[in-house]
Amino acid sequence: MAVGDYPFPSMPPVAGVAIATAGAGIKKPGRDDVLLFALAPGSTVAGVFTQNAFCAAPVKVCREHLAQANARYLIVNSGNANACTGDLGYQNALTVCASVAQQAAVARAQVLPFSTGVIGEPLPVEKIIAVIPELCQNAQEDAWERAARAIMTTDTRPKGVTRQVQIDGVTVTVNGIAKGAGMINPNMATMLGYIATDATITADALQQLARESADLSFNRITIDGDTSTNDACMLMASGQASNTTIADVQSSGYAILRSAVVEVATSLAQAIVADGEGATKFVTIDVTGGADRDECLKVAYAVAHSPLIKTALFASDPNWGRIVAAIGYAGVQNLDDTAVRVHLNDVLIVEHGGRAATYTEAQGQQVMNGDRITIAIDLGRGDSRETLWTTDLSYEYVRINADYRT
């Protein structure tokens, strides 16, 4: 079950970024479940990772390796998260890195590992190692859709976005893929995302861009309020475009690249929500009129995480009382309820502390019958604004997660 139509786009190659996929039979035979990115010498890589204290072994290794060397290879497996696997999981992640390093003749620290799938099961490391020679030999620049499919778990469709911009008169490409459908919640959302560009940019500027783009996209989606152990979003820059090196985050080149990367990341984040486990509604929560960013986010998350609101959305029930209740308990100090206005799409439902005089149940029902709904909340106390994207909560979500390990 998924909302809307998100066909996989035709994605141009990103010079200096080669891709290979292979089937290791980690969870389900007959499908590609290992992905390799091979980056040209001189590439830079930045990333943001889960804030979960039980972060997975590959996340720990990635952080360590990024601090030690310039990454040349990223290897990803689906079907097994290698999370909560103790020292064995850590050593297994290192073993995978060492195998890629040996095959590609680079240092182990130049390989970054990623895993997604079931938590708590030992990584079938030998299966992954067995396909590494094939991956290293077959990497090519036009395999983006295969890459997107190889990292899927409960996703129903591959997710990819591409943009091209002009910097210094040079065409710069930005491609991105992501996976995620459940355990989606900020800091980060439970997902894996890989965005690559051929732009020339310094490591410090790239890391800043990774943080900014994630904050405006992947950290603005939530499906069920659960934060995974394996989340990572990686930003790769091959430096193969001949633009002037971007080092100053205040420069016009940075602004242009930032706009493209944020657009790619936001589109991927929204595609994750639209493919949420069991989702039948794509819901935008737009909170305006806040005194500051934090209280806008408090209100948005309270609404997005309310199981009562999410189940009402699934039932197409315009039960607006649940929305105002969530606004009220969000923790905004000294909130004046008479200043709050709430819309469903363009329909005003709440003002002056109660139901709007112009509102009718038929209006609300018409909005809720659609599969794209905006809950717009004006707190009436400032100029801040924040937006989240979320879904409803369906029978199918329960079934998928009840049966996940079987």
Number of helices: 11
Strand arrangement across the biggest beta sheet: 13-12-11-14-10-15
**Helix content percent band:** 25-40%
CATH superfamily of the largest domain: L-amino peptidase D-ALA esterase/amidase
- Percent strand equals 15-25%
Q: Care to describe what's here?
A:
The protein has helices at 57-68, 86-104, 125-138, 144-150, 203-215, 252-274, 293-305, 307-314, 320-329, 361-368, 395-402; strands at residues 17-22, 34-39, 44-49, 73-80, 111-118, 159-167, 170-179, 192-197, 232-237, 282-290, 341-344, 347-351, 354-355, 372-378, 384-391. The chain is α+β, with helices and mostly antiparallel strands. The chain folds into 2 domains: 17-274, L-amino peptidase D-ALA esterase/amidase (4-Layer Sandwich); 282-402, Roll (Ubiquitin-like (UB roll)). The chain has a 6-stranded mixed β-sheet. Helix 1 (57-68) crosses helix 2, helix 2 packs parallel to helix 3 (125-138) and helix 7 crosses helix 9 (320-329). The protein is globular. The two termini are 19 Å apart.
Descriptors:
406 residues; alpha+beta; L-amino peptidase D-ALA esterase/amidase; Ubiquitin-like (UB roll); 2 domains; six-stranded mixed β-sheet; 11 helices
Give the SSE layout.
Elements: E1 17-22, E2 34-39, E3 44-49, H1 57-68, E4 73-80, H2 86-104, E5 111-118, H3 125-138, H4 144-150, E6 159-167, E7 170-179, E8 192-197, H5 203-215, E9 232-237, H6 252-274, E10 282-290, H7 293-305, H8 307-314, H9 320-329, E11 341-344, E12 347-351, E13 354-355, H10 361-368, E14 372-378, E15 384-391, H11 395-402
Parallel strand pairs: 4-5, 8-9, 10-14
Antiparallel strand pairs: 1-2, 2-4, 3-9, 6-7, 7-8, 10-15, 11-12, 11-14, 12-13
